[in-house]
Write a structure and sequence with these properties.
Oligomer: single chain
Number of strands: 19
Largest sheet: 9 strands, mixed
CATH class of the largest domain: Alpha Beta
Strand content: 15-25%
Distance between the termini: 13 Å
Radius of gyration: 21 Å
Number of helices: 15
Number of domains: 2
Structural class: alpha/beta
Length: 431
């Protein structure tokens, strides 16, 4: 007898090109296999997943949990609660905390706090440079031993080409990725949004897509020359995507992610939502939104990541020019991704791949799949359930989103982490 059978769901596992109605079998915290409906062994507990998608546990590879130092915006405990509510079983925590995660002690502390919370798994992304200052590399080997899965100065572009070269070389020796925030600050200084008529009407400084594209071109060239592993965070421009597509035709060490806000909204949202539509990189033009969608569909962009960036309401109330960049995204990412599926832009398999094995492979994780022996991390999605985005109901401590009131179709209804069912789908379990 096994511990749990998740029965009669639509099982989607891109690793095996699996898309069947079946039962996912779990025992001792591990996946035992996928069986035809009713053909597996007896189980101590059965979860009826009829009408649901049963996928490998979703992975968000770009999340700002703010702790330590920013607990008024988010804590590790509130962040992993938001992750589980959004359907994610694993999140990668970015390094721009206070103190910065540039030391093995901080890395270990983050992992310990996440273990105490006992919800989504947290894998730390450590800083590339000490203090995110771009001047001195951190000790990559020590950070890896402490549990770091990649390195990033996210939010702070590495402007010095020689420093980026050394970072790619050092990370490459460990088989790990540099996650790059691609922004040429000589072009973007003071910018609050995309350059153009809307920025002019709102009276704020804007930045064009060249700021992103120029840095992507530089770093792609370095990665190809060195043979290093470069991951481009939150790519937002057609020009930047063109560089990535060209390089990936011959070099597999370059990868990229897209955010739901960049494949859903364009710069016109800033007029409507103000600072809650201010992010970096900024919302772009319609042609850029279409380019991001196309790159997800053809696999140029391998991962969807929320870039969950919580801020206190008082900070976002400072006005467009002075407010901090970023929006929350853990609890809306799945619904916005499913909107692309319903629109015919992405197949179910492509969407699930970008939320599971895509980020897992980039981060070097063994999760993101339903193969026998893998950790029993499973996400349960209702692709048809209608719902309205209500920030007051978020598990996150922050509410900064341009999607308030948006009507969506499809959402996560539960997760299974290490064989433990969490969320609305607990009500479907019978013992």
């Amino acid at each position: 007898m096994i511990d749990l059978a998740i029965r009669n769901g639509r099982v989607l596992d891109p690793v095996r090109s699996l898309d069947v109605i079946g039962d996912v079998l779990i025992d001792d915290g591990k996946i035992m296999g996928v069986a035809s409906p009713g053909e597996g062994p007896r189980a101590r507990a059965v979860l009826d997943a009829a009408g649901l998608w049963v996928t490998p546990g979703l992975i968000d590879m770009h999340v700002h949990l703010r702790e330590p130092g920013g607990e008024h915006k988010e804590t590790i405990a509130s962040g992993v609660a938001a992750a589980v509510a959004g359907g994610f079983t694993t999140v990668a925590a970015m390094a721009n905390t206070d103190p910065v995660n540039d030391d093995a002690e901080v890395t270990r502390w983050i992992r310990a706090r996440a273990a105490e919370a006992g919800l989504a798994r947290v894998v730390p992304v450590a800083a590339v440079t000490k203090g995110l200052a771009g001047e001195e590399l951190t000790d990559f080997a020590a950070l890896r031993r402490a549990g770091a899965v990649a390195f990033s100065d996210d939010g702070m572009p590495i402007m010095d080409e020689a420093m980026m070269r050394r970072a790619l070389e050092a990370a490459g020796e460990l088989g790990m990725s540099i996650i790059a925030h691609e922004e040429d600050r000589t072009l973007s200084a003071g910018a609050a949004m995309q350059a153009g008529p809307i920025a002019e009407r709102l009276g704020v400084c804007g930045v064009g897509g060249e700021s992103e594209a120029r840095m992507i071109a530089r770093d792609c060239a370095l990665a190809v020359e060195i043979g290093g592993r470069l991951h481009v965070a939150h790519v937002s421009t057609a020009a930047g995507i063109a560089h990535i597509r060209r390089v990936r035709a011959t070099a597999r060490g370059v990868s990229a992610e897209a955010t739901p806000h960049h494949f859903t909204l364009d710069a016109t949202a800033v007029e409507t939502h103000g600072a809650n539509a201010k992010m970096n990189p900024p919302l772009r033009d319609v042609a850029d939104v279409e380019a991001v969608r196309a790159a997800l569909a053809d696999g140029t962009i391998e991962a969807i990541a929320s870039d969950h960036a919580p801020h206190h309401a008082d900070e976002k109330a400072r006005g467009l020019a002075a407010a901090p960049f970023g929006i929350v995204g853990l609890e809306t990412a799945v619904g916005l991704t499913l909107a692309l599926v319903h629109a015919g832009c992405l197949s179910p398999a492509t969407a699930v791949r970008a939320l599971t094995i895509g980020p897992a492979r980039i981060l070097g994780l063994t999760s993101g799949q339903l193969t026998r022996g893998a950790a029993a991390d499973v996400s349960l999605l209702d692709p048809e359930q209608p719902w309205s985005v209500e920030p007051a109901a978020f598990r996150s401590r922050s509410r900064n989103t341009p999607f308030a009131g948006t009507q969506l179709r499809g959402r996560a209804v539960g997760v299974c982490i290490g064989g433990r069912v969490i969320g609305e789908s607990e009500a479907r379990v019978r013992r």
